[in-house]
Design goal:
heterodimer; B: 300 residues; mainly alpha; MetI-like fold; 11 helices
Chain lengths: 334, 300
């Protein structure tokens, strides 16, 4: 296991280098002069030249990449072209909001997706199964920005039950410690703020959870069906064990392994989906920030945030692989 | 019989009648499933709308605006209501079908051809080519697809053609992986060795034996990839990166309207979004049905 973990981690090096190369090349995908595109047509030639130098565009391309890589190792993701702030600082400041949203979404997805998948598999081809399969397929087909709009309109505007934007009501006085508002509010025992934060979280989390929920339900169903058709399940049944024990103790434990991989993959999609969800709900995480940066053509931010999300995605997938190896004793990696 | 025992029963698939072609058998299995029939129905309806609307009705997006009709709720004259510029939403949803579906289908077509060829090449052309090609695919897969598409279009600039490029690019790796894995598996099979031993040329072997065996999984993948591509195109449109106003594209129509949801004008975003969801659902249903009908592992 230890050796496998080391080997698996080593495969990250070429992938991360490749990722950095691709993200680096983003700036060269900009048609024409990137500096001019960023500054707009009315920029003075001096200013354009300054930005070109700042971006290192006056050097040969391989040198540019090495400089870029060197900066990455020092944690320098460049600076915002519009405001001049370092990208990494802003990124880390905004990341907790996205983590909070994504965590809520994945918890919702697991909480509902796994039971739906189990029920669907156990009562295969029943009405429950048909309904949940169509429901899951509808979830996979959902444009989450549309669902978000509908939720915001229905629960926020029509019923006025829930807020439709931001993390807290405007005017709420709160001094967060870590920018994980819910965690901070709980630690500070500020129940009013905690309630307010949770209310703001519900709609975006539901919208963001839709696709992972459906994917997890489908995967759990498929995986349960496969496990349920195996001999050891028949043995367990033949021994006269109660059905609940067979399903939950014998079948589910093995069936959940492939689901684990899917959950790992969904984390990446949650981060990408956050761009759409956060835009709808004015949720001040990295998704909304990317959207705003695209509008203001702040390419350094788009570049830095893409790299950051890709690295998180790659790391989460590696952790899933390791977790998989750790929890499944039948798998030997050497 | 307990529910569990029922669940454990193998699905009895209708056996192929002797003398029927595999394609014919698969087609009949497809039509036997209500889910697949629903998918086929929805997809056919959208394709018909996409093809017939421009042929039957002329629409000039640039001059379409009537501010006296701003944000009118659905009525007999405007069944889907009107948007912030007083444009009939039904007309724009119908005309948007060609744009949204066209973008989805054409980007997948490009990805399917390029990706499958890369996969064939990787599986067939030796270890070095394989390593390099698959490494490139791994890099593309290291990004969540939606993010990569958004980032690329953000860089190269918004528009339909650039969206097509980005969506194709992020759809390529799956094709490459599928066709490569099939080629690698087939290379070990006796009938391929036999054909090779009989002196069949590489090209002929590829065309006669490898490619036909790649088709079923690639067809399934294509249907599901179109569903994904329509969603992706809509997401780009929604972020203002895809089709530019006043082009009637479903995602862009949502982008036009989403700032008005507080005014309670639900129809402005309900109908374009419903069109996205329904068309994506259609392709997903069809893809699921096709997988059941074509998956060789289920052919008992």
């Amino acid at each position: 296991m230890g050796r496998y973990a080391v080997r698996r981690s080593l495969t990250l090096i070429p992938v991360l280098l490749g990722v950095s190369l691709l993200v680096f090349s983003f700036i060269h995908l900009i048609p024409g002069d990137p500096a001019l595109t960023m500054l707009g047509e009315r920029a003075t030639p001096e200013k354009v030249g300054e930005v070109r130098r700042q971006l290192g565009l006056d050097r040969p391309i391989h040198e540019q990449y090495l400089i870029y890589l060197g900066k990455l190792f020092r944690g320098d993701l460049g600076s915002s072209i519009v405001r001049g702030d370092p990208v990494l600082t802003d990124l880390l400041r905004r990341f907790p909001a996205t983590v909070e949203l994504a965590t809520a979404a994945i918890v919702l997805a697991l909480l509902f997706g796994i039971p739906i998948g189990i029920v669907s598999a156990v009562w295969r081809n029943s009405l429950v199964d048909s309904v949940s399969r169509v429901w899951a397929l509808a979830g996979v087909s959902m444009p989450i920005f549309w669902l978000g709009l509908m939720l915001a309109w229905f629960f926020g505007v029509q019923l006025r039950w829930l807020p439709t934007g931001f993390r807290l009501d405007t005017g709420t006085v709160f001094d967060p410690w870590t920018n994980f508002v819910i965690l901070d509010a709980a630690l500070q025992r500020n129940w009013g703020v905690l309630r307010d934060a949770l209310r703001h979280l519900i709609l975006p989390a539901v919208a963001l959870a839709t696709i992972p929920l459906a994917v997890i339900a489908r995967m759990t169903r498929a995986s349960m069906l496969e496990v349920l058709s195996q001999e050891y399940i028949r043995t367990a049944e033949a021994k006269g064990l109660p059905q609940g024990v067979v399903i939950l103790r014998h079948a589910l434990r093995n069936a959940l392994l492939p689901v684990l991989t899917v959950v790992g993959l969904q984390v990446g999609h949650l981060l990408a989906g956050a761009i759409l969800t956060e835009t709808i709900f004015s949720w001040p995480g990295i998704g909304l920030w990317v959207y705003e940066s695209i509008e203001s053509r702040d390419y350094a931010i788009v570049q830095g945030a893409s790299l950051f999300i890709a690295v998180v995605f790659v790391a989460v997938n590696m952790l899933t692989d390791l977790l998989y190896a750790a929890v499944d004793p039948r798998i030997k990696y050497d | 019989m307990s529910a569990l025992a029922k669940a454990m029963q193998r699905v009895a698939l209708p056996a192929a009648r002797p003398g029927r072609s595999p394609a014919g058998a698969a087609w009949r299995r497809l039509l036997a499933s209500p889910v697949a029939r629903a998918g086929l129905g929805i997809v056919s309806a959208f394709v018909l709308i996409g093809v017939l609307t421009p042929a039957l009705h002329h629409y000039e997006a640039r001059t379409d605006a009537d501010l006296t009709l701003r944000l009118k709720p659905p009525t007999g004259a405007h069944p889907f209501g009107t948007d912030t510029l007083g444009r009939d939403i039904l007309v724009r949803v119908l005309h948007g079908t060609r744009v949204s579906l066209g973008l989805g289908v054409s980007s997948v077509a490009v990805a399917a051809v390029v990706g499958s060829l890369l996969g064939l090449l990787a599986g067939y052309a030796g270890r070095r080519a394989d390593l390099v090609l698959m490494f490139c695919m791994d890099i593309l897969l290291a990004f969540p697809a939606t993010l990569l598409a958004i980032a690329i279009v953000a860089m190269i600039g918004p528009g339909l053609r650039n969206s097509l490029f980005a969506i194709s690019l992020v759809s390529i790796p799956v094709y490459a992986r599928i066709s490569r894995s099939i080629v690698l598996a087939l290379r070990e099979r006796e009938f391929v060795t036999a054909a090779w031993a009989l002196g069949m040329s590489d090209w002929r072997l590829l065309r006669r034996h490898i490619l036909p065996n790649c088709l079923p999984p690639l067809i399934v993948q294509t249907t599901l990839a179109i569903a994904f591509a329509i969603l992706e195109a809509a997401a780009l449109g929604f972020l203002g990166l895809g089709a530019q106003p006043p082009t009637p594209e479903w995602g862009a129509m949502l982008a036009d309207s989403y700032k008005y949801f507080t005014s309670g004008a639900w129809w402005v975003f309900f109908f374009p979004g419903a069109a996205i969801m329904l068309s994506v659902l259609g392709f997903n249903l069809l893809g699921d049905g096709l997988r059941d009908a074509l998956d060789p592992r289920l052919r008992l």
